[in-house]
Write a structure and sequence with these properties.
The structure is a single chain. With 568 residues, the protein is α+β, with helices and mostly antiparallel strands. The chain folds into 3 domains: 2-116, Ubiquitin-like (UB roll); 126-343, no CATH class; 358-568, Transferase(Phosphotransferase), domain 1. The chain has 15 helices and 19 strands. It has helices spanning 28-38, 40-45, 75-86, 126-140, 144-148, 151-160, 180-190, 199-211, 241-253, 259-264, 307-334, 409-416, 449-453, 466-488, 558-566, and strands spanning 2-4, 17-18, 53-58, 111-116, 227-232, 269-275, 278-286, 290-294, 299-300, 369-374, 389-394, 397-404, 426-432, 436-442, 447-448, 491-492, 501-506, 515-520, 527-528. Strands 5, 6, 7, 8 and 9 form a 5-stranded mixed sheet that branches. Strands 10-11-12-14-13 form a 5-stranded antiparallel sheet, with helices on one face. A 4-stranded mixed sheet has the order 2-1-4-3, sandwiched between helices. Strand 6 (269-275) and strand 7 (278-286) form a beta hairpin. Helix 7 runs antiparallel to helix 11 (307-334), helix 8 crosses helix 11 (307-334) and helix 14 (466-488) runs antiparallel to helix 15 (558-566). The protein is globular, with a radius of gyration of 29 Å. The relative contact order is 0.08.
Length: 568
Amino acid sequence: MIYFLYSEFLMAKPPHVIDIKVDANETIDILLYQVYNEFKMEFEGARIGLARLSLYPLPSNPPIQLPPLETVTAVPERVEKYLQSHCPTEALVIDRLSDYIHEGESPRRVHFVLDISDEPVATLDKAEQTQLKVIDAAFEAQAPSSVSANVRTFKKEQQERPIYNGRDGFDGPPITLYSSIFAELKENLANLSAVTPNAEELGQTEAKVILDGSVFAVTEGNNRPIVLLEWKNELGIGGDPSLQIALTYRKYIAQKIFTRIRNASNCPCILIAIGGPHICILGAIFVDIVIVQPLTGYLLLGGNPLKREAADHIARIFHVVAKAVGKLDAMYMKLKPSEIPVHNRLLPSPTYRPGSTFEDQDALSPLNLKFERRYDYKGRHPQEYQRPIFLGTLRGRDVVIKFCEAYGVQAHKLLADQDPPLAPKLHLAVMVRGGLTMVVMDRIEGQNAFSRFGKSYPRDSVSPSEVEDLSFNKVKVDVKKAIDLLHASNLVFGDLRRPNIMVVRRPGTGDASEYDGGMLIDFDWAGPVGQTKYPSVINDSGEIDWAEGVKAGALIEKHHDLVMYQRL
């Protein structure tokens, strides 16, 4: 039985109370779909999306006296008075209808009040707008169990409403950049030999693993999204639990009940996926997009002939995960939910590695280094979020802040110190927890050579103008000077392509006017000759005309730079 709290937009006449038949094993989101579809024309006419609907459970015999049919318009007023005096909790979309059925009641009927939230206030900030769209998409998406059980359905869902979990080409930035708890957890999981639970803790966990394969399970508490768990009888039966729990997290955290928490945090949550005797631990956050990343592979809890050794390994993993759960709980206890979105919740909050040393220690203070927004550089695909590059300020100076696995600091500094500079000024390059380096450099106005001159030259088989020709040649002069300086210092650049060259304006000398010059950017592959290798994953699709000998894991050689220069 559904009571409409605010139903004037639906109809000027009854009913304001409807009966809908749903299987008791279905979840609340299925019931919401059916309610929405029942009045889809009216909802769409009033521009009300599914995300604005909420259901509040009532007792089995609600103390709401229904008036005669001719005065049924009084129902919303009576329902509202009941809600104000009793304050029921919103039904969660992942709850099952059976959770709300009262024992002994026949027929098996559940009473809900349908509420419609106010229209979210629009903001000009792109990240905020993106998050609002994700919230709407979470309600429009099919049930997680349906999506995860069918490959075709999942691929279609990813194209329309993606989650960034590394599947189907949708990779997000590392969650460790946004949560110190995840950064610490990832490092602890990578160094389990240093984990020292006491003998009693270790013994208790080992006993659970060896005797019955059971594991700890902490659910959400007081509307704090701490841990979510998905359990399948076996891997491959009924869908992938690690995929289903990721989809469940999105649908769960998008609910109205979490609005004030979403406004104040990026909603970090540990996800536990279980398939038979296998368990996988994942981490999830909600910034402008939903990012879900595995923290472990699937771990076997039983059937290992080396039970004691395996149990000790699993016990250490559970120990560090349990500590992270405790820290998440403490974080949410201290969190002050907000009615107004706090913008920095959508931005990185890196944790600097203990013992890191650098010249400007004071620069990392949040008062000095401030993140502003994701760098929406020209040519970036609107659904590309893998590269963690942001715009910000350092003591009021405009900077670019990027995170990468490795960085050629020596090469960057060498070129930045030239007159005129052949690279942007480098302010910081510091290790952060989670295995990345944070690089802070001046923000340079201009275009990269790919945006300015195209993929090849002359562009699109059209002869360039004399002005463009002259400009391009002057940019190449600076690039050649930069490569020669690097090679003279026994350094290589590695990724010499047009997107990694900035076209900048140089001041003229004497009577000469300004002219175009070039700077190298993106020193991720740069480093000493004989030590620096290409990454283990490289674009070898044929799209890029690499120099001969360039391949994943190979040493970067000087002649590679020279060949790539000739191919600019």
